[in-house]
Amino acid sequence: AGMNGTAIANFACVIFNVSFMNCTWHVGRTATEDTQYFLYWRPWKKEDVTECQNYIEDTCGRHTGCRFQNVTIENNIAYFLVNGSRSGQSIQSYEKKILLYKIEKLTPPLNVTVNCTEASHRCNIWWQPPRTSHVKKSSCFKYEIVIENK
Predict the structure, then answer these.
(1) Whole-model pTM?
(2) Which one, 42, 49, 105, 139, has the greatest CB density within 10 A?
(3) Ranges for the Type I cytokine receptor cytokine-binding domain (predicted)?
């Protein structure tokens, strides 16, 4: 349903700092200035649908994204729906299923400590795993250390 070209394009979400999620999109190619979009999402196998409470707007006041807080990755999959209207007419809706763990940007390792001894020309480096809401075993992480001699 809805007029061709009114559905959003380039929908993308990212989870950062463990529990914050930003989703953004571009307005449809035939969307007019009075087109308005609304984002809803729900975790896999849950009935509760959450509408965005903190929209990002373009210069015309159209919703082009959303900021969510207190997001948890307890379920791997979430469903997203963006629908809307213009001049009282419905527009094409957009639906997407996302594996949440794939969109999480991890924090850097925490409490990095370096202890170098000049006599042995050795350095010991310790750290704690990044904060994340879904990885329970620290052995799941792989690290890369780049040492620059300055």
Answers:
(1) 0.80
(2) 42
(3) 10-98
